Amino acid sequence: MASNSFRSQIHLGVIIILIIITLLTPITTYNTSPQPWNILSHNDFAGKLTTASSSIESAATDFGHVTKIFPSAVLNPSSVEDITDLVKLSYDSQPSFTLAARGHGHSHRGQASAKDGVVVNMRSMVNRDRGIKVSRTGLYADVDAAWLWIEVLNKTLELGLTPVSWTDYLYLTVGGTLSNAGISGQTFRYGPQITNVQEMDVITGKGEIATCSKDMNSDLFFAALGGFGQFGIITRARIKLEVAPKRAKWFRFLYIDFSEFTRDQERLISETDGVDFLEGSVMLDHGPPDNWRSTYYPPSDHLRIVSMVKRHRVIYCLEVVKYYDETSQYAVNEEMEDLGESLNFVKGFMYEKDVTYMDFLNRVRTGELSLKSKGQWDVPHPWLNLFVPKSQISKFDNSVFKGIILRNNITSGPVLVYPMNRNKWNERMSAAIPEEDVFYAVGFLRSADFDDWEAYDKENMEILKFCEDANMRIIQYLPYHSSQEGWVRHFGPRWNIFLERKYKYDPKMILSPGQNIFQ
Ligand code: FAD
User: Fold this and answer.
1) Most buried of the four, 6, 78, 194, 238, by CB within 10 Å?
2) d(Cα 241, Cα 150) in Å, to the nearest integer?
3) Tens digit of pLDDT for each residue in 386-398?
4) Which residues pair with 100 in a beta bridge?
5) Does residue 7 have a pLDDT over 90?
């Protein structure tokens, strides 16, 4: 007892000292002027470090296209040692320079940028022959963090195996999604991608490489998962695998009543042996049904759906999938028939597709290619993603979907809303989530024009302000906070642990400055 209280006093003391250091540390200590001339003349990086304007320009932007943050140089590493050397060089320099790992640059707000520092282009490490090792007996894959999830899927499927937790879109790197959480319609059952990793290699902000897992260097392991790149650069991840199903029965059900919609969603995610995937979306009285996420509905039904949306202004779509193969085909048909009968959607608005497992997981790609061909992919994406506690979701529907969004009448792009179970997450990881047992992911995945994206940003601010004023305890996913104060609120009581870990693993505040947490 006494030693526990002594320990907690020391712990509190350390936290207070860290806070005082943060407050007293003049910004200039870490607001370093970079020294690309030093680095460029360094033999270790010959031919790998570039200041070519095309590289600088592409490292300055991301999928969001709403920020332009220029680094001084870009490193194209060919080995883990290249990265370790660069981090060490920065750590040993006075002053140090900042570094950001850039996965596929699919952040939406400059999170993978390093103003005046060095962007590490992780994709230059990809070696198709060496980047992945699959253990059939251990049911895991050791993957270079620079690999895209689509590449991981292609490789594991060759052996009839697959990771179990996904993002909707697969052209994201393993390191990039593990730095956030990696969520999709499988999260309610398997947890986010960060809970499906067994081991990692991480280069800390001191330039030291460590293998970590829940049993080895566990604090670093949990810190890096959902850690926004703040504690280290992940170079390898061991990802849990299962036997891959062959096909997917993919259903959509339309609802006009939000409480029926969420009641059905919540029931389905509480079942242990039910559907394999569950998401949902909001369809608004703006333009054609859905858009880049799929060409799902049969063209012959578009008019019917559009007229239902027009009549009700906001309707909802429940999306579920059940995987199957030859042995389970008949059972799945029966199960899905029973499911259809038990749900409270608007009768006559059930849609079914039967696709390969790969086509299902890679479903966003079709939309991407179509938008690319029309020049509508590389446009501003002022996205807003939120975790909304279950107790607040009905208020969110009334005040945001049916309030702010309808009133402003500008939202374009998919609007996702689907629940997940808190017990599939792990509190020791850095990712922040609401306190309630069930919470919803809500995503406004907007596409805008270069001259009007700020209107969407204003709408995002309006939504955030409303939620804050109404004390809804929402938390941003893929967050953007313009000041440290926002981050302190983001983490709530866990901020001190985040801060403590930052001082432990990246004391010179070198890593991932684009997240805007410490710089
Ligand atoms: P980047 O944008 O390059 O980097 C993101 C952050 O991680 C940066 O701070 C960077 O410094 C850091 N980082 C990158 N690599 C490493 C590494 N190896 N080690 C440590 N830190 C690193 N997310 C979901 O969860 N679910 C979805 O369904 C989903 N769908 C999406 C669909 C689209 C079309 C897009 C564009 C994004 C989607 N995302 C989704 C968001 C996506 O997961 C994040 O934006 C992710 O960070 C992008 O991965 P990236 O590899 O491009 O990372």
Assistant:
1) 194
2) 14
3) 999 999 999 999 9
4) 119
5) no
Q: 3-state class of 385 per DSSP?
A: strand
Which residue bears the tokens 């009839």? 160
Do 392 and 472 form a contact (C-beta atoms < 8 A)? yes
* Distance of CA 166 from the midpoint of ligand 1 (Å): 12
CA-wise closest residue to 157 among 237, 277, 247, 236: 247
Q: Report how far apart the first and last C-alpha atoms of the chain are (Å, whole number).
A: 40
Name the one residue in this structure whose structure tokens are 């939120």: 386
Residue 228 CA to ligand 1 center (angstroms) comes to 9
Angle between helix 495-505 and 484-491 (nearest 10): 120
Sign of CA dihedral 305, 449, 177, 397: negative
Tokens 């080895």: give the residue.
216
Rg of the chain, C-alpha, whole Å: 23
CA-nearest of 224, 155, 161 to 194 is 224
Q: Which CA distances in Å does 429 have to 91, 179, 180, 206?
A: 25, 10, 10, 21
Q: What angle do CA 466, 388, 480 make, to 5 degrees?
A: 70
Nearest to 511 by CA among 197, 50, 44, 117: 117
Among protein residues, the one whose CA lies closest to atom 33 of ligand 1: 169
* Cα–Cα distance measured from residue 484 to residue 490, given in angstroms and rounded to the nearest whole number: 9
d(CA 256, CA 117): 50
Query: For tokens 């707000």, what's the residue?
Result: 109
pTM (global) more than 0.85 = yes
Alpha helices in 93-168 (DSSP H): 149-158
Please give all residues whose beta carbon lies within 6 A of any atom in ligand 1, as ranges: 62-63, 100-107, 111-112, 122, 145, 167-169, 172-173, 175-177, 179-184, 228-229, 233-234, 478, 512, 514-515
Distances (CA, A) of 390 to 181, 261, 263, 483: 19, 13, 11, 28
Residue with the smallest CA separation from ligand 1 atom 25 is 182
C-alpha 319/C-alpha 250 separation (Å) is: 7
Identify each DSSP E strand in 358-490 by its residue range: 384-389, 415-421, 438-444, 475-477
Beta bridge partners of 376: none
Residue 499 CA to chain centroid, in angstroms?
A: 21
Q: How many whole angstroms from 46 Cα to the centroid of ligand 1?
A: 29
Active site residues: 106, 168, 279
Query: Given CA atoms 405, 406, 409, 413 in this order, what sign does their dihedral have?
Result: positive
Count the alpha carbons within 13 Å of 444 in the hemisphere toward its beta carbon: 23
Report which ligand 1 atom has the smallest distance to the Cα of 514: 9
Q: At which residue do the structure tokens 């060409």 appear?
A: 295
pLDDT at 139 over 80: yes
